[in-house]
Amino acid sequence: MSITRTTAKAAARTAGSGALALAAVAAIVTAGGQQASAQVQPATLASTIAAQSASAHGYPNNLDGWIRQSLAIMHAKGIPGSYEGLHRNIIRESSGNTRAINLYDSNAAMGIPSEGLLQVIAPTFEAYHVAGTSGDIYDPVANIVAAANYAAHRYGSIDNVDSAY
Questions:
Q1: Pick from 13, 22, 80, 143: most CB atoms within 10 A?
Q2: Mean pLDDT in residue range 84-110
Q3: Residues 147, 76 within the same domain
Q4: Do 50 and 86 reside in the same domain of the chain?
Q5: Span 112-140, pLDDT tens digits
């Protein structure tokens, strides 16, 4: 399988600048020295890079690790929230499924489904995305931090959210 330079660059943009080296290495991977016909999608590569990045930062690649890494970023950026508040909302919104997507609510009816751990719609994710996190809405840390940033602006903290928001 080969990953084109264009795909690798797109993945690096999606995953964030910290993934640039991994994307560059991925750009030169070939099958038997020949270009393979199968291509890896940038978002898939970005999610893989983000997961590897999470463990590279010393956090396990699981719900506990994503929450703890998110809290560290939130603390550094002045975004309020607690482990309990994030965990409670993640379990209610997605049961911890990073690829969760709601195709049945009013947002989905308008063509902008809620996505990821905290069921964020794309315009909200883009508006409240925190610099230094992945641009991939399905990246668990980026999704958590963007949702917590939104909740902080709208409700004072993710801790104050007790239902769909």
A1: 143
A2: 97
A3: yes
A4: no
A5: 999 999 999 999 999 999 999 999 999 99
